[in-house]
From TrEMBL:
It holds the Pfam family Aldedh. It comes from Gymnodinialimonas phycosphaerae. Coiled coil: none annotated. InterPro entries: Ald_DH/histidinol_DH, Ald_DH_C, Ald_DH_CS_CYS, Ald_DH_CS_GLU, Ald_DH_N, Aldehyde_DH_dom. Belongs to the aldehyde dehydrogenase family. Residues 29-489 form the Aldehyde dehydrogenase domain. This is Aldehyde dehydrogenase. Keywords: Oxidoreductase. GO terms for molecular function: aldehyde dehydrogenase [NAD(P)+] activity. The active site is at 264.
Length: 494
């Protein structure tokens, strides 16, 4: 990856994208399109199809037909594995193209996108390609002349709804295991980050995935997403996004066919730093990166920094230094550490959180403003607010932006109480050299993922999922396969 190749790709025009239905690129049923606005400079990059409910129904019908005739599920596991590996090969071969396309669309800094997007997507698809012929049924420990078999079957049609922060990585977390288990899939990317996921879906066809097994429909969540949620023919719905949309999906399921709904939602993750942390300078740098990379648009971002009172001022000063050393700007510049905020609306919302934090007594000790306005893009200075009480809006509500709230604590119990004082439970971290304290914190802080003396970076071998209002499902690892499988019992009298 070098700057010249990135600049050459960024200069290329982007052809309009249609849906991918039944192996063909098609327009919306009424021909409507949506402009794709670049967060880098506010320019219109291209268009995508503005999907209708009929488009979504056509994609689901195609997926059902593909599942029904066994063109994918009926293939030998080794054959399916080969196709998925070929898909991963193509993603790797097109990695820079995919990464630059995605960054032009969603604003993530390229240094992060390259690794987290095509790199991670290809690795995820390979992981599940390798897993697919290691999933066995079971024989139950029955007594007498009876045989109890437990089969693992694909569920049928999977609907996947993906957010804009990491479309390829999160897309692959769902498509990889769903396809590996033999299902057909309809995926809906987010309005403000469709392009790279649509391109990755095209590559799946090129790799030999039969038409109709993977369909992709662009458009507004409230239209095509709702049609997917209300469909009578989607068996499982997997979702990553906000809690508000997650609630709607549960309602859609209740109003339609009671499809299984798995939600990976937001967080307000506590990063707890004790005075006995092994290396406070390192902790400060990682704390800054753990909230500010991708402009804070990371579900597991450590957005609440809880610092032992004895080191509060020194540690905050170190985090401010680390933050101010991070370079905000052109996401396609390899030297950039913090890219663009995804949309104008998101930036406005972020600035509103800063105003509220001030009004509630917080002190903005760095950042707090929109910057680089001359670019026409959506850039915000990484922002740190101290004096955030556990009840404050900034401590309670997910911002999903580059804003870190800092609160002091006195004792271990205090730290746990504050850490657990939100409705969320996605991720967290503890920094300490005391092994017992580390294990107690891992045990007592209510989250799906805990880090010790680090933040982020958990690879595909471990599950990611939340507790509380952070969700009810897991992506990554072999555990994710369960979402895409039905257990069927065969009770056989011998
Ligand atoms: P969002 O809920 O606004 O949108 C997510 C997706 O849902 C988009 O594709 C959108 O088009 C679709 N959608 C919107 N309204 C819909 C409706 N009525 N019916 C069906 N679909 C609809 O979320 P977002 O702003 O794109 O993503 C940010 C959120 O995602 C944050 O809360 C973040 O924490 C969360 N997130 C969670 C994880 C995780 O693994 N837990 C990972 C990344 C992001």
């Amino acid at each position: 990856m070098d700057q010249n190749s990135i600049d050459a790709l960024r200069a290329q025009p982007i052809a309009p994208f249609g849906h991918l239905i039944d192996g063909k690129v098609v327009s919306a049923s009424d021909g409507a399109t949506m402009d794709v606005i670049s967060p880098l400079n506010g320019a219109v990059l291209t268009t995508v199809a503005r999907g209708t409910a009929q488009d979504m129904d056509a994609a689901i019908t195609s997926a059902r037909a593909a599942f029904g005739d066994g063109r994918w599920a009926g293939q030998a596991p080794a054959a399916r594995k080969k196709v998925l590996h070929k898909w991963a090969d193509l993603i790797e071969a097109h990695a820079l193209e995919l990464a630059v396309l995605g960054v032009r669309d969603n604003g993530t800094e390229i240094s992060m996108a390259m690794k987290a997007e095509p790199g991670s997507a290809a690795a995820t698809i390979r992981y599940y390609a390798e897993a697919l012929d290691k999933v066995y049924g079971e024989i139950a420990p029955t007594q007498g002349d009876v045989l109890g078999l437990i089969h693992r079957e694909p569920v049928g049609v999977v609907g996947a709804i993906v957010p804009w922060n990491f479309p390829l990585m999160i897309g692959a977390w769902k498509l990889g295991p769903a396809l590996a288990m033999g299902n057909s899939v309809v995926v809906k990317p987010a309005e403000t980050a469709s392009l790279s996921l649509m391109r990755m879906a095209e590559l799946a066809l090129e790799a030999g995935l039969p038409p109709g097994v993977l369909n992709a429909v662009t458009g507004e969540g409230a239209v095509v997403g709702e049609a997917m949620g209300l469909s009578m023919d989607v068996d499982v719905l997997v979702f990553t996004g906000s809690g508000g949309t997650g609630r709607r999906l549960l309602e859609y399921a209740a109003r339609s066919n009671l499809k299984r709904v798995y939600l990976e939602l937001g967080g307000k993750s506590p990063n707890v730093v004790f005075a006995d942390a092994p290396n406070l300078d390192e902790a400060a740098k990682v704390a800054a990166a753990g909230i500010f990379r991708n402009a804070g648009q990371v579900c597991v971002a450590g957005s609440r920094l809880l610092v032992e009172a004895a080191i509060h001022d020194d540690f905050v000063a170190a985090v401010i230094r680390a933050t101010e050393a991070m370079r905000v700007g052109d996401p396609l510049d390899l030297q950039t550490n913090i890219g663009a905020v995804n949309s104008e609306a998101q930036l406005t919302q972020n600035l509103g959180f800063v105003d509220t934090a001030r009004a509630e007594g917080g002190e903005v000790v760095t950042g707090g403003t929109r910057i680089l306005q001359e670019t026409g893009g959506n850039f915000m200075a990484p922002t740190i607010v101290t004096g955030v009480t556990p009840e404050a809006t900034l401590a309670q509500k997910e911002v999903f932006g580059p804003i870190l709230g800092v609160s002091p604590f006195e004792t271990d119990d205090d730290a746990v109480r504050i850490a657990n004082s939100t409705v969320y439970g996605l991720a967290g971290a503890v920094w300490t050299a005391n092994l017992s304290r580390a294990h107690r914190m891992v045990r007592d802080i209510r989250t799906g993922v805990m880090h010790v003396n680090t933040y982020g970076g958990a690879d595909g071998t471990v599950p990611l999922g939340g507790v509380g209002q952070s969700g009810n499902g897991h992506d990554k690892s072999l555990h994710a396969l369960d979402k895409y499988i039905n257990l069927k019992t065969a009770w056989i009298k011998l």
